[in-house]
Amino acid sequence: QAKAAGRRTFLRYADAMDGDIRRRATLIAALRKVVERGELRLVYQPQLVLADGRIGAVEALLRWNSPEHGDVPPSQFIPLAEESGLIVSIGEWVLREACNTLADWRRDGIDNVLMSVNVSAVQLLRSDLAQTVQQVLRETGVPANQLELELTESVLMANAEHATERLQTFRRLGVSIAVDDFGTGYSSLAYLRRLPITTLKIDKAFIDDLGRPGDSEDAAITTTVIAMAHSLGLRVVAEGVETAEQQRFLLQHGCDMVQGYLLSGPLNSLDCLRFLQDWQNTPQVVSASARLDPA
Ligand code: C2E
Ligand code: MG
Ligand code: MG
Ligand code: MG
């Protein structure tokens, strides 16, 4: 009896596994054609400089709309693109598209905005990313100091020496390097000190409870990270800032920039251009007591 039940459970499990493997395989097959079929697009999420109320940067985020699978979230397809190696060509498309967009915006009077592009480990370690970056910068005319590459902490940790060497190349070019999702891995700030990075993005998980009464751990971690990052000369960005309380806390503790739904969600390139232009025309002062409202 128990054996039979166990067997049924196993079969259901095996069935589910099978379905899962099949879905992965179909998604990977579909991913092979996304670039040529024009199924990818980028959206752009602005980052606010707390000290002067400027929009200092914009992060490019990838979207896939598949005719067969609908909107597939990056959390689902990026890992598959990495496993299959397709991230190299997809990532090149991302880089070129993001820089083309920035070049357009520059022609429309937007300057001094950094374009931040997510880069996966596979791209950094198993492709000639530096060559691609240089080529794209040449093609689009975007200055190297307006490009930032975001890498997750785990990549830099797992391949420290190799990664460091590669990152040096970008720093020599003048490209900024951000550590994404900081705090979710195991790296210490002492370790980060040895990496040629410019920016630290504190993961949303630490931001969520900031400014709420009773929260002390995340607040302590965040303030410590900000202070130590500053002592290493790094710029600090808080990810996933959704409330005025969180932003106020971050401002009070010297965080440099915020990104999140409070300011804006990701926008298509035209809406983002309008956002940037409106913002330039009516700069908003960020104060510790008020939100972004102009009093
Ligand atoms: P990430 O780089 O840490 O990007 C931040 C994610 O948080 C984005 O999710 C963004 O839409 C979301 N987000 C921003 N503000 C808020 C907020 O206030 N609240 C909440 N709940 N979420 C917020 P998205 O666009 O789904 O991207 C997920 C992840 O996929 C990214 O995390 C990044 O790791 C990866 N990814 C996205 N685009 C690319 C790409 O072009 N290349 C590579 N390699 N990875 C990418
Ligand atoms: Mg990112
Ligand atoms: Mg992140
Ligand atoms: Mg993330």
From TrEMBL:
Transmembrane segments: none annotated. It comes from the Bacteria. Residues 24-280 form the EAL domain. This is cyclic-guanylate-specific phosphodiesterase. The chain holds residues 446 to 740 of 744 of the full protein.
